[in-house]
Amino acid sequence: MIQERIFPTFLKKVTPGPKLWLALGLILSLILVKNTYYAISVMILSIVVIVLEKQFGLFKVILVAMTVLFISMYALHGCIAPNIDKVNDPVMFTIFGIRYYASGFAWATKFYLRVGPMMPSLFVIFLSIDTADLSVLMCKAGIPYNAVFTFIDSFQVITLLNKDMDQIRDAQRSRGLQTEGSLLTRMKAIVPIIVPVVASAIVKVQDQAIAMDTKGFNAKCKKTVYREFSPYKADPYFKWAGIALSVFSVGYKALVSLNVIPAFLTNML
Predict the structure, then answer these.
(1) What secondary structure, in 3-state letters, does the chain show?
(2) Which of 2, 77, 19, 89 lies closest to 53, judged by CA?
(3) Where along the chain do its domains lie?
(4) pTM here?
(5) Average pLDDT per block of 10 residues along the chain, 269 residues long
(6) Are β-strands 98-101 and 91-95 bridged in parallel, bridged antiparallel, or unpaired?
(7) Bridge partners for 95 per DSSP
(8) Are the beta carbons of 225 and 130 closer than 8 angstroms?
(9) Which of 24, 27, 228, 253 could bond to 32 as cystine, CB 3.0-4.6 Å?
(10) Spatial CA neighbour of 134 closest among 146, 148, 123, 144
(11) Per-residue model confidence (pLDDT) at position 43
(12) CA–CA separation, 197 vs 165, rounded Å?
């Protein structure tokens, strides 16, 4: 049998710490700087990285959410934004008798270009973080190991439950259960699927609790980690880029708020 070998991509080789710094920098810069060209550039660059990392299949769900958010925000704020002056503001176009104003679209842009670019950028960053490496980083940062275990295990439980649900759904289909069709048919199929999933989850929790006790999870002693990861050569660039973005964004916002410098980068409301 030919075994598939998954080679780590460039982004997956970067350790979790620098990625978290970069994520913090992107969040602060998108919220505080409020520059249209910067936000659009982050969005486009993130999508390009997603394609290069070959994660576009998973990104389709986020893309649908971004599209729905775009349509809903512009459709609503374009006509009822609080900054619209319906007497003086020019009407861009009319749909079914509803007038859409330029100031309303500007108001929608103010919020969408803060949230929209975060979705692909944070998606590609967090998707490339290995949970085991993240747990090691959290332990070394001084976070209690039981809190680290709870945080990491929550993501693994979601994956396991999803896998169990798929298996139980297939098993119930083989027994003649109708899981496709109208909404009523789907609702009738929920109970025969959910009950075995919950029962299986309870059994797994009990087994996991026993395994944790036998391995000394609650032992009052210093904990060590068996997993070590060596820094990647691109780690410093990611780390200092995130720190620089964070410091610059906070400093820029503070100086603008104190009227020390003009808002030369801000071109949104």
Answers:
(1) CCCCCCCCCHHHHCCHHHHHHHHHHHHHHHHHCCCHHHHHHHHHHHHHHHHHCCCHHHHHHHHHHHHHHHHHHHHHHHHHCCCCCCCCCCEEEEECCEEEEHHHHHHHHHHHHHHCCHHHHHHHHHHCCCHHHHHHHHHHCCCCHHHHHHHHHHHHHHHHHHHHHHHHHHHHHHCCCCCCCCHHHHHHCHHHHHHHHHHHHHHHHHHHHHHHHHCCCCCCCCCCCCCCCCCCCCHHHHHHHHHHHHHHHHHHHHHHHCCCCCCCCCCCC
(2) 19
(3) 10-129+247-257, 133-214
(4) 0.74
(5) 55 88 93 90 92 85 88 85 78 82 84 89 87 80 78 74 80 78 75 81 79 74 72 90 94 92 82
(6) antiparallel
(7) 98
(8) no
(9) 253
(10) 148
(11) 93
(12) 6
Identity of the amino acid at 236: P
Phi/psi of residue 259, nearest 5 degrees? 60, 30
Task: Give the position of tokens 């169990």.
Answer: 164
Tokens, residue 149: 């275990």
223 and 3 Cβ atoms separated by less than 8 Å? no
**Residue (of 15, 17, 11, 18) closest to 241 by Cα position:** 18
Tokens of 218: 């609650």
99: which strand partners?
94
Given the structure tokens 């309870």, which residue do they identify?
A: 202
